[in-house]
């Protein structure tokens, strides 16, 4: 199949193969379908050639051959799943984004609601039309190898003008295999015609069958149910709301916009959490006699206007610069905003620690391992630098 892609469609597809779904890999369904759409022309040709194979056991099942509607449904699935890939990549990095988790859940809910409305009827705008492929002559019991024509013949045949919508003709030769595995003289040539849709044309709306429509509708319904389940669990934990409120780009603006009826109750839970865990923190910035008269940090912070175009990379630095103004809220913000939004960074740290504890160092105390990982991460981010002793010279041991 790889040879078909190199010669017949595009050199950029060289070496690409189909991907399989993986239950333990994020976005594996999206990646599988996306790769299939990239190789759709090759897959169609491969399946049509396989159906004509004289040996029944070598043929692809007719039920597994994708129809034009199947390709359209797959393209729609890609559009539905695209935000999930985007947000997964957004959260799996090292930048602290815990405060963005709940707002993102609402963005995903909006996306699925829009998709549910879009697929309320069978008529949809067609984002993709499968190429029309015809194949002449049966395929013999032999190896199929690419036999590209020279430039002159290709020019006479119309060339590989996939983007212009003209018909493209390809010639494939079938060869007998010798004992050395090398193909010998050609036995026959099959002509394959592929006609692509013009990308500049606005395609007519595509009417899905009831099966295709019901599949997408039930998938969206299940996705919304699963999203609501985890969103409700997050909303039941005050730390998600607290982290969002402590984000200077959100504050309570998001709550006032999306959940105006719940602002008071969420702020009450936020204050209770603060009083329970951070109100008694000793603060050196206030004189001992004046600590009881310390200003209400929460009210002062909530009166600030949320900052637009806030850079996430500066989140912790923003709070470091206001440690004196909000000493107790600073402690709370550093605890919550430094939480990883996903387990990806935690798994990376765990893997690095595993390399630290080698077979010769398996008696390291957990405090030592923790200190080593902290130093490693601080050095990587530039928070600290390794100072060389005076007079030190690098030497090869």
Automatic annotation (TrEMBL):
It comes from the Eukaryota. It is found in: Nucleus. Residues 297-378 form the HAT C-terminal dimerisation domain. Its main location: nucleus. Pfam families: Dimer_Tnp_hAT. GO terms for molecular function: protein dimerization activity; zinc ion binding. GO terms for cellular component: nucleus. Keywords: Metal-binding, Nucleus, Zinc, Zinc-finger. This is HAT C-terminal dimerisation domain-containing protein. The lineage of its organism: Eukaryota, Fungi, Dikarya, Ascomycota, Pezizomycotina.
